[in-house]
Amino acid sequence: MGALIRKVVKVAPPRRLTFILIFVGVLSSVAIDAGYLILVPQTLLAAYRVGDSPVNVLTPLMVYLPFMVTVAQRYKKDAGIGTIIALMVPYAMWILIT
């Protein structure tokens, strides 16, 4: 950003120099504030998703749970929702820790 300011100052006409310096200063301040406002919520959302994703398998509202129960019942007739959740707990904890 400093190189851009120096370049603008060198090619600017003297009567516009004050306006250009103020304009560039305000824009650089806005860019820093915008970066802060954009990056912080994205970082928090990414951290939430990383922490939330391993335990999504454990919720009974998961979309694929009936499919998983159906596939499990092919191999074990008395498999149910509790069986799937009990089998997924070690994997979810391992992913959450790593």
Automatic annotation (TrEMBL):
InterPro entries attached to this UniProt entry: AbgT
Record Pfam families: ABG_transport
Keywords, alphabetical: Membrane, Transmembrane, Transmembrane helix
Signal peptide annotation: none
GO molecular function, one term: secondary active p-aminobenzoyl-glutamate transmembrane transporter activity
Coiled coil: none
One Gene Ontology biological process: p-aminobenzoyl-glutamate transmembrane transport
Transmembrane segments: 20-41, 53-72, 79-97
Protein's name according to its UniProt entry: Uncharacterized protein
Source organism of the structure: Micropruina glycogenica
